[in-house]
Amino acid sequence: MRLGDILLSAMRGVTANKLRSVLTLLGVLIGVGSVILLLAVGNGSAQTIKTAIASLGTDTLTVRASSQGGGFGGGGGGGQSSTTTTTTTTSSSTKVITAGVATQIANAGLGHVKAVIPEVNSSLTVSSSTTSQDGISILGTTPGYFDVTTAKVATGSAFTAADVSTSAKVAVIGSTLATELFPTGSALGQNISVAGDTFNVIGVLSTQSSVGFSDPNLVVVAPITRIQRSYTGYGAVSSLLVQASDSNSIAAATGELTVVLNQLLGISTNATPPYTITNQSSLLATQAASADSFTVLLGAVAAISLLVGGIGVTNVMLVTVTERTREIGIRKALGATRGAILGQFLAEAATLTLLGGILGVIAALIAAQYQINGTQPVVLSYSIPLALGVSVAIGVFFGVYPAGRAAAMRPIQALRAI
Hints:
Radius of gyration: 32 Å
Number of helices: 13
Order of helices and strands: HHEHEEHEHEHEEEHEHEHHHHH
């Protein structure tokens, strides 16, 4: 039997029971579409985070407490002037990293360090006269924060060094927070309450891309001295944001920071420092690994639906073989070979999955044009041929057993079937 005849017979078999074929196609469509779309969502999420991290600048370093603790303190909460400071046991002269230590580093005349920005963090309830938001990120820092980071003031102005000196109750808030607290008007000049303390809004930040699980547009940025006085205390800061002289000086700046921090904290040469220094390159590498794992996980979840579609093909083909037993017997009696019968039913299974796969690709490409939960999917170039190939392979694989049953029928037994 020629290949053309086999394919023609397969198409007739597929269209013989239209509703059954459509339902089978739908199962394969969902499987293929899910694989492509979920891989696209994972890739899109990874691209968004990578872009956001890269936009933070290739000339910045972040100094944070290491997993062993010491050197830094977490942000306080609940509106109480308290803090927990941790010191290392390396030396009796060991200090925590405070805003004063940051000033000492900035004044040390390091050749590859341009700016040192201390930061303290907390998470508190922020409210206006009409509404409130829980768990808002409260960041205490210095005016240099707006120069070093991508947090730029869109309307209004940033606070000044004088505001830091006087612990002024002024704040710059994120664009989303401004909209949620003041949905009917401008937030500029309005007062907000942060855990009971009143702050005057002097600026609203431009909209920023989200990195990780936190929304940078739901933030209150205020003078570090005010946040310390009202919420975290004057102990250790949460982190130091350090700007190198340029992107090529990251390694040199890291070395200078390490030497100065060890001196200021009283860390001996052989001791493990209670802090880590990271840059955007290391963050990007870590994020890339996490994003790849996330994408693979999404693909594996989607592949399950494709597997279910393949099982549906098996079920349909078994029913088809049973219904067409007499046809198989007649064809065998007229001289059809085992291979011809096997090829016909395998071709039917492959045709079903191929058509379903093509429709699934079209559906996924259409869906990828829209944002999904705030993420713009980015279709991976290899996902389309991979999903199509896998769908056809699944059709053939799950069609082997029904096709084998059809091919193994003895003509006399098949002709006796009613």
